[in-house]
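Predict the assembly for these two chains.
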Amino acid sequence: MYADHFSIDNIPFGIGSSEFHSRETVVTRLEDTVFFLDELAEAGVFKILKDETVKTFSEPTVNNFAALQKSEQLATRKAIQALFANGLESLRSLPPQSYSSIAETRLYLPLAIGDFTDFSCSRDHVLNASEAVFKKRELPPGFEYFPVGYTARTSSIVISGTKIKRPKGQYRDGEKVVFGPTRRLDYELEVACVIGKGNKLGDSIRVEDADEHIFGLVLLNDWSARDIQGLEMNPLGPLNGKSFSTSISPWIITLEALAPFKAQAPKKNPDIEVASYLQDSDSRSSYSIDLSASIESKVSTDTICTTNFDTLYWTLRDLVAHQTVNGCNLNTGDLLATGTVSGTTAESHGCLMEMAASGGVQVSSGKGESLKKMWLEDGDIVRLVGKAGPGVGFGDCKGEIVAAQS
Amino acid sequence: MYADHFSIDNIPFGIGSSEFHSRETVVTRLEDTVFFLDELAEAGVFKILKDETVKTFSEPTVNNFAALQKSEQLATRKAIQALFANGLESLRSLPPQSYSSIAETRLYLPLAIGDFTDFSCSRDHVLNASEAVFKKRELPPGFEYFPVGYTARTSSIVISGTKIKRPKGQYRDGEKVVFGPTRRLDYELEVACVIGKGNKLGDSIRVEDADEHIFGLVLLNDWSARDIQGLEMNPLGPLNGKSFSTSISPWIITLEALAPFKAQAPKKNPDIEVASYLQDSDSRSSYSIDLSASIESKVSTDTICTTNFDTLYWTLRDLVAHQTVNGCNLNTGDLLATGTVSGTTAESHGCLMEMAASGGVQVSSGKGESLKKMWLEDGDIVRLVGKAGPGVGFGDCKGEIVAAQS
C-alpha cells in the first residue's frame, strides 16, 4: 500500500526488522520494498560516507543519523538514489537480509523522543474549536503574535498501528462531575517536525536557520478525550485528555524530499506587527501536502477530512524559532507538532470536535444511507494520510480504538 | 552546609564526581562527606546485594537504581547505614577515592528525565494566583475533583547551582504586545517526586500502590516569566513562560527517609465526592516538610517564604493515581511536581506573583530599612530549602539570575 508515496524522490527513514534481519535498525523504502541501511553498507553502497555516518545505520533509532550534518544526510540520500536508479528489478542481486517487502517488515517507533510540543497553527481550527466550546469564533489572545502551544507527553507516543485504549477520566455530565470511560473520543490530524541538530540551553535558533535543525516530518494523531480535556484544561491546558496516546507514522520524510513542494503560508493579519524573531525572509517556507483522515467502522469507510498543510498560519520554521527564543534547548528527536490541520470548509475539519456543533460528521450507514457520527466508537480505525506530490508521501498513520479497561 | 540535613537517618542518592573519582556515578552523603557507592562496593560494603543492584552504582544516573525492587533499595540503605553506624571518624580507613568532602565534590543532574508533569496541589496558591491575575479568589473548575496539572519541558531541567538566564519573549505592555527580556521573572517553590518503577501504557496505578512507584523526592524551582506566561497560556497552558529552565536539588530523598514525617493532608471539601481512584485508605499520606525560599541580592539576604509540604490539598500518591488513570505510562526518572507550595499567610506564599497585588515582598534595603521587591532581578540568587526533621533534609536548590542574551 502507498507504493506511489515512496518513489526514488522520497527516500524516507524509519526503523524496521524482518525475518532475515531481526535486529531493529535504520531502514528506507522504495515503493513496497524496505531496505536495511546497515546491510547496504556491508554491500558497499555507502563507501563515500564517513564511518560515523555508517555507524548510525546500525542503531535502534534514527536519532544519531538525524543529528548528523545535513551534508552527510544528503550524501546518504544521494547514494541510496544512485542505488535505486535502475529500479527494483536491478536490486534482486543484493543479499537477502538487506531488503524485505513492506508486508513482511515490522516497523517501530523511529525515534527516542525527549520532548514533544504541540502547537496550534491552524487559524480555522482554533476558530472552529472556539465556536464548538464557547459558541463564539474567537482567536486565543496570543494566536496572531506567535504559535501558541503546550508541552505534551512523550512516554505514550506510539507507532502507527498500535491500538488505542479508550481512556477513563473525570468529566461533566450535566451539572455533575462523573468518572468513567470517555464519551467524546476524538482524533486530531496533525503533522510534526523531527528535530535533527539541537541547540544549547540559553541559545536561540533564528527562523532563517530553522531548516538546519529540522530533520523531517511525520504524520501525528493527537488522540483527544474532549470531555476529560474540557474539565481539566482551565487554566493549565490539557493533560489526561491527551496523554493516554499519540500516534505517529513510521516514516520520516526529509525536508529534501519535500523541497519541491514548498509553498507560501497564508498571509498574516496586516494589523499585527509580528516580532522580529518570527519575520521569515523566506516567503515560501510552508509545504503543499495533501492530508486526509478517514474512519473505518464495522459498516463503512468514510473520508471525513481532506485538507492541506499549506493552510497553516504558522510554519514549522516559526515553531522552531518560537520554541527557542526563550533559550529553551531542543534535542535531536524532539517533536514539534502543528496542532489540528483544518481548512475553511466543513470537509476540511481535522477533528470531530469541530463537527460536533453541526451534529457530527457525515458517514455511510453501510446500507446506502448516510448518518451523522459524533465521536469515535470502539472498533473504529482512524487513518491519516499525507501526500506532497507524485512519488512523495507519508503513507498512513492509523490506530484502532479498543474498549476501556474494565 | 546543611550537614544537619544528612544524618545516618537520611541516606540520599545523587550523582557526583571528585578529583579522585573522576567518573560520574551514584553517591550518597553523611553530613558533609560524599561517598561513591561503586567504590564502597569494591571495598566490600555491599556483599549482601545482588550483582545487578551493585552494577547500578557505576552508572551516570540514578535511574537504574531507582527502577529496582524496593527490597533491594532498602537493603542498600541498610548496608550504608551499617557502614555509617560508628560515625565519620571510623570511615577514614576507606580508600581515598571512595569519598570526598561536599565542597570538593561536583554534583550532577541525578536523573535522565523522560517526562515531567507539574501539578497544582496547593489550594492557597491557586486562590492567590487567581486573585493576582483575575482579581477574584476562584478555584479552577477541576481543582477539588483531581490534581490539575500540565506537562512541562524536560530538556531544560538543570541541577541546583546552574545559572538561570533571563528569558526573552512576548508580553503585554499596556495595550501593545512587545518582545524583550521578561520584566516579571519569578520563582516557584515546589517539591517533585521521582518515579522509581514505572507502569505499562494502558495500565493504571492504584493510589494505594503509588508508594511502590515513588523512589524519592527533590526540591524543584519552576522558574516562571509571568508576563510571557500571561499572554500565552490561554487556552493551552504555559509554554515559553516556563520552558527556559527548571532547577532541581541534587539529592533524592527516599520515601524511607521521609517515613517518620508522614502527616495528614488537609481535609477535602466535604461537598465534593472524590472519584474512587483518588480515595486513599491511608489518611497519613502527606509529609511534614518545612520549606523555605530566600533571595540573596547584592545588598541583603531575605527569607521570603516559609511553608510546609503538608498544606498541599493533593498528595504525591494522588498525583501518581491521577496521571495514570487514563492509562498513561510513567517511566523511571519521570518527575511529578506539586506546583507552588503556599500556605495561608503572606509569609508562606511560594512565589512572587502571589505578593505582587500587595506591592511585592518585604526585603531589606541593606541599610537597616526595608523595601518591597516585585520580581527577580539580575544577580539575585534564589535558594529553596527543605527539611523534614532532625537529620533529614534536602539541602538546598539554588539558582542565580543572569542577564538576558543581548
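DSSP finds nine helices and 26 strands in chain B. Chain B has two domains: 3-108, 116-402.
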